[in-house]
Structures are given as structure tokens and as C-alpha cells.
Amino acid sequence: MTPLTAFFAKFIGAYALFAAAWLYFRREAAVGLIERISHDPVFESMIGVLRLVFGLAVISSHNRWDGWLEALVSALGWIGLFSGLATMFLPTGFLRRSVDWMQFKEKLPVYALVSALLGAVLLLGGLAA
């Protein structure tokens, strides 16, 4: 494993753990932010740009697939790239319809748990390097 893989795994893992804690402990704020972002085309575009930047940063410096942690980090980079492009270029309101379809408000604890598990796997994998 390269030092860059360990860095990205720890960075993304810590972020996912903090995001999970925020989703779980500050539910009203999380739901309010998602509602605001998904109903405002400017915020929607900004989130798309941030996802695109994240994806480009990861895949331009770490497009490796030779181990499970490398593949996971690279896959998250590609997911970030494509979700950023989709958020930026699909019609306004697509993000809102996606949030509604995902039932974000109702299933928020499930999304927090998935984020926590993904974060723990990445962080532990990066620390074990």
C-alpha cells in the first residue's frame, strides 16, 4: 500500500465518521441542510462542484486497483467524479427528487450507520498501513 492510499483512507474515513456522528446527533440540522441544498439551484451546483473536485483529486493522484483498500479509495473517487458531474449537469431538481426517492429524512439513521461503517473500515485500513 502506498502512503497516498493510507492518507486518502484516513482522510475519507475520518470525514465519514464525523459526518455519521453529525447525521445522527444533529438530525434536524442535517435534514435542514439537505432540504436547503436540494431546493436551491445555487447550492445544488456548489455541491456538484465540490464532489467533482474531490473526485478529480482522488482519481488524478490515486487511480489504483491492486488491493481492497486501494480499490475502495479509487472507487470513491470515481463515484465523487460522476456524482459531481451529475449534480452539476442534470436538470435542476434532480437532487431534490433523488433525496425524496432515498427517503433521506425517514432513513437518516441508516445513512448515518452506513457512513460510520465505511468510515471505520477506511480509517482502520489506513491506520494499519
Structural notes for this entry:
This protein is an all-alpha fold and 129 residues long. Helix 1 packs antiparallel against helix 6 and helix 2 packs across helix 3. The model has no long low-confidence stretch (mean pLDDT 92).
Notable features of this structure?
6 helices, mainly alpha, 129 residues
In short:
This protein is an all-alpha fold.
Which descriptor suits the 3D outline?
globular
Largest sheet: none
Treating each run of at least 4 consecutive H or I residues as one helix, how many helices? 6
H and E string? HHHHHH
Determine the N-to-C terminus distance: 7 Å
Structural class: mainly alpha
Give the rounded overall mean pLDDT.
92
Instruction: Work out the number of β strands.
Output: 0
* Residue runs with pLDDT of under 50 for 5 or more positions: none
Radius of gyration: 15 Å
| Range of strand content | under 5%
Overall helicity: over 70%
List the helices and strands and how they pair.
Blueprint lengths: L2 H23 L1 H13 L1 H21 L6 H22 L4 H9 L5 H20 L2
Helix pairs in contact: 1-2, 1-6, 2-3, 2-5, 3-4
